[in-house]
Specification:
Layout: H1 6-24, H2 41-52, E1 63-68, E2 78-83, H3 89-109, E3 124-127, E4 130-133, E5 135-139, E6 142-146
Antiparallel strand pairs: 1-2, 3-4, 5-6
Amino acid sequence: MNPFTPARTLASMAGLALLLASSACRSDAPQTPSNTAAGGSATLLARIEAERGDAACDADDQCHTIGVGHKACGGPERYLAWSSKHSDGARLRALVAEHAAARQAEDTKNRMMSTCSVVPDPGATCAAGHCVLRAMSAGPGGTAPVAR
């Protein structure tokens, strides 16, 4: 018996079309909140990046890290390296706090959940004239920052 008869092929194509049509009406993907209003997290993140600048440095002691964002369980989503050579640390911290509050409001509004995993601070170092995050390496007790 030939499994590729015209009737079976037509029935399979009709079933596939029905499946595709029904899935197009529903999306399980999280909806992205509007960040165009003043103070929205996307706008604030752009302001953080502008304040951070190119993170130019001459030595490691000019390099710092700052936790950015807000996880639904608390804590930052990630870290950025920044330099005290040209950036205003107080202004950067204020923007980061404002951004975290906006992200927390978005998380609450959208009923976001989190794995509650802790994002460790990797530390920062001066490499080729710019502050960069240190590479994370697994150690005996978990992860630990190590310089590249």
